[in-house]
Amino acid sequence: MFKSLITSILAFSFLAPAFAAEEVNVYSARKEKLIKPLLEEFTKESGIKVNLLTGKADALLKKLELEGENTPADVLITTDAGRLYRAKTAGVLQAIESETLIEQIPENLRDPENEWFGLTYRARPIFYVKGKVKPEELSSYEALTDEKWKGRICIRSSNNIYNQSLLASMIAASGEEQAGEWAKSFVKNFARPPKGGDRDQIKAAASGQCDIAIANSYYYAAMLNGKDEAQKAAANKLAIFWPNQAEGDRGAHVNVSGGAVTKHAKHKENAIKLLEYMTTKASQTWYAEKNGEYPVTAETKPSELIQGWGGFKADSLNLSALGENNAEALKLMDKAGWK
Ligand code: FE
């Protein structure tokens, strides 16, 4: 009896430090409700405790930079490849080796040097007011500079990274000069000085302020699926149009939410395990159903609502180009007078 007590105390003291070390610290620019349930599921399956800090993307990046090697963060979760690229160039991420991530995530949705990985993707299509615009009148982002759209387009401001990334993709497609000309003509067709978020552009179009809105796909899904009847009614007045689908054209602009292991991660293995967990069918399905995003893995289908929008050709550009062209995009938007 005495001996077995000693043995179990010894066994416990041996196990205790190892058990306590099984944790991972996450900085997330995704809202708590869009990540916490997933992290809880990860803990249940792996036994690894997750400590979560949520905040604004730019603030979290600044925090990582200031904390340097003393940072408690092992994982950074944020949206937009432009921001993931920013974190990479700020030197706060590290390259990791994971066959799972390489196999599961298409090459263009992750960093070529394995410093960040797209975990869900979203499109930024064109939305039009049914009855006011015929889909045959639409074709591409480029064609939105046509005079017929004068005073009819709603889009948010240039300080939002989603639009910076859209223009960055156009720089990649046709060069700075053409992208700059496009921005100038595009701005002339705005219905109003940019204000509000993506949902506000859809609402403005529904209320008659414009006939075309540009927004990320998951906002439209959330408005259609949500409990807010006014938002649902607004979204129902609009339909989705997939731009740049013609043969030989590049496809609709897409972007990701993604994750990375921090440069000074103290729990690197657990951090990799967490990122890998986020590509499992269960996680991918959760994001697809919960937030109307597109799964990055081939084995998982988008939600039923989104499948109902039909498939589309996505721009296959490697998304790190969105980061590389970000500064130039900002400059061009500024020159174009895109507020
Ligand atoms: Fe968003």
UniProtKB/TrEMBL annotation:
ATP-binding among the record's keywords?
no
Keyword tags: Iron, Metal-binding, Signal
GO CC annotations, alphabetized: outer membrane-bounded periplasmic space
Q: Where does Fe cation bind?
A: Y218, Y219
Pfam families hit by this protein: SBP_bac_8
Among Gene3D superfamilies, the record links this protein to: Periplasmic binding protein-like II
InterPro entries linked to this entry: Ferric-bd, SBP
Q: What is this protein called?
A: Ferric iron ABC transporter, iron-binding protein
Task: Write down the species.
Answer: uncultured Thiotrichaceae bacterium
